[in-house]
Amino acid sequence: MSDLKLMRSPNCAALCLLFAVPFACAQYRGPDPAATQARAAADPSFYLPDEPAPNLGLLKVRLRDYADCAAGSACYARDLDAQTTRAVELLEAAVAHGKPGERLALVLDIDETSLSNLAEMERGDFSFIAQECNAQASPARTPAIPGTLRLFNRAQALGVAVFFITGRNDAQRAATVANLTSAGYRNWQALYMQPDHPAASNDPVQTVARYKAAQRRKIVAAGYRIVLNVGDQFSDLDGDPHAEFSVKLPNPFYYLP
């Protein structure tokens, strides 16, 4: 096993299980399903349906192999480390080409960017959605993603202000601050969280992308130049103003618009 493999956090008290799929289904190690399907497709005595999506159980096998860096598969921890290393290099280049007196900023997402919910996702058979479970499962002991913590520390050493923008609701602020601090993140500039009761808006759907872009506008309005934005969802990075560099971390486990 790679020494980059993420720490597993203690089990949360509550999990959102969106599918009642037995945990054992993700342990399938039978015949290669692609080869079996190919043989069936070539056999005129088989009549196969035109299924619109891949088999969910088999997708979970692939997710577990990726998360666990199983032999012969891609490796989640290695991919995280590669992207965060790239982010450090981009940050250093931006600082090196900066102007004296500029207020530079790094923006970080939290879930699956700064902190890892991998243990909870595995426990929930990859039916755990961090965004929907934050109100139910205390995040107080979720571990840091090592590469992002290195990036955070490098930013502070270079004098770059760090802003967290998360889709978590403000009711989770105390637990989130405690978790970030215990995981090694300290002395950040600001933590932006969604209000518990958003004001009425002409926009009936406040997507994550729109919400996060609005928080970045506040950072720019405060006089900062956002040189780098790191997140695991495209919605962490999309929308104006863009950072000068945007780095997406791998997350095949869930999607947030």
In a few lines, what is going on in this structure?
The chain is of the alpha/beta class.
Task: Give the overall pLDDT as a whole number.
Answer: 83
The CATH class label is: Alpha Beta
Rg, alpha carbons:
20 Å
Oligomer: single chain
The helical percent reads 25-40%
CATH topology: Rossmann fold
Side-by-side strand order of the widest sheet:
3-2-1-4-5
Report the order of strands and helices: HHHEHHHEHEHEHE
CATH H level, superfamily name: HAD superfamily/HAD-like
By secondary-structure content and strand pairing, the structural class works out as alpha/beta
Distance between the termini: 33 Å
Essential attributes:
single chain; Rossmann fold; 5-stranded parallel sheet; about 260 residues; alpha/beta; 9 helices; elongated; about 35% helix; disordered N terminus
List the helices and strands and how they pair.
Elements: H1 33-42, H2 56-68, H3 76-96, E1 104-108, H4 118-123, H5 130-133, H6 146-157, E2 161-169, H7 173-183, E3 190-194, H8 208-221, E4 225-231, H9 234-237, E5 245-248
Parallel strand pairs: 1-2, 1-4, 2-3, 4-5
Helix pairs in contact: 3-6
